[in-house]
From TrEMBL:
GO terms for cellular component: plasma membrane. It comes from Peribacillus muralis. InterPro entries: AAA+_ATPase (IPR003593), ABC_ATPase_HisP-typ (IPR030679), ABC_transporter-like_ATP-bd (IPR003439), ABC_transporter-like_CS (IPR017871), MetN_ABC_transporter-like (IPR050086), P-loop_NTPase (IPR027417). One of its GO terms (molecular function) is ATP binding. Keywords: ATP-binding, Cell membrane, Membrane, Nucleotide-binding, Transport. Pfam families: ABC_tran. The keyword Coiled coil does not apply. This is Amino acid ABC transporter ATP-binding protein. Residues 2-239 form the ABC transporter domain.
Length: 243
């Protein structure tokens, strides 16, 4: 479903991704761990060209884009393959919960309004917000806002959902409700790449865990391999520090 070949990215001549190769299978749930500044978010953003890689090839679904020759059209079709859930939700503040979810269906998927409404209602039900249709984002808790963010991503019916630290802006007591929604979706077989600092969640939900440091994938393996028997010293140090 995803194939990254030798992705490199620098900001202000500072290399942030130093040649990332990664394949993710259909339905696979991959979590990315690593210290702050190791390039996790940049990697996620290169997957949909929110950050344009300097070098390498990005393939998601049946769309392949070479960083150096990417046309606008290719980038648009690449973006349609995935949906992103952001750390700070990025909801439209002046739209209701229902309108936030409907937006993508109407604009991107060209649904008629009634159809978009029906579909959005189902999705809001799914993330446990069936009673909040007419609320505005500011009237919701962070956890509820993030669940709207997830419903909005699902509405696009993407091949892949990218989660960029979906719970790191939340008060601790709100983290659980968001993680449990993500777990439910993961079980439905949608391909996911999740940047997270929630170790027990990563252990539970992942088919595969990647550990990044200094712009490279230092180690990857099953949750059991990474959490119980990491091979690399850098992985061990990181896990010791945060546990
Ligand atoms: P992580 O998600 O692992 O914390 P990031 O991918 O956010 O790491 O950032 C990696 C490095 O790239 C950091 O040093 C960060 O400051 C830098 N960086 C990320 N985005 C930009 C940008 N748009 N402009 C300049 N530097 C950036």
């Amino acid at each position: 479903m995803i194939n990254l070949k030798d992705i490199k990215k620098s900001f202000n001549r500072q290399p942030v991704l130093k040649g990332i190769n990664l394949k993710v299978g259909k339905g696979e749930v991959v979590t990315i761990l690593g210290p702050s500044g190791s390039g996790k978010t940049t990697l996620l953003r290169c997957l949909n060209f929110l950050d344009k890689p300097d070098e390498g090839i990005v393939q998601v679904g049946d769309v392949q884009v070479k960083s150096k020759k990417a046309t606008k059209r290719e980038i648009l079709s690449l973006r349609r393959q995935s949906a992103m859930v952001f750390q700070h939700y990025n909801l439209f503040a002046h739209k209701t919960v229902l309108e936030n979810v409907m937006e993508g269906l109407i604009v991107t998927k060209k649904y008629k309004k009634a159809e978009a409404k029906r579909e959005s209602e189902l999705l809001l039900e799914k993330v446990g917000l069936g009673d909040k249709h007419n609320h505005f984002p500011s009237q919701l808790s962070g956890g509820q806002q993030q669940r709207v963010g997830i419903a909005r991503a699902l509405a696009l019916n993407p091949e892949v959902i990218l989660f960029d630290e979906p719970t790191s802006a939340l008060d601790p007591e709100l983290v659980g409700e968001v993680l449990s929604v993500i777990k439910t979706i993961a079980q439905e077989g949608i391909t996911m790449v999740i940047v997270t600092h929630e170790m027990s969640f990563a252990r539970e939900v992942s088919d595969r865990v990647l550990f990044m440091d200094g712009g490279v994938i230092v180690e990857e393996g099953s949750p059991l391999e990474i959490f119980n028997a990491p091979k690399e010293e850098r992985t061990r140090q990181f896990l010791n520090r945060i546990s």
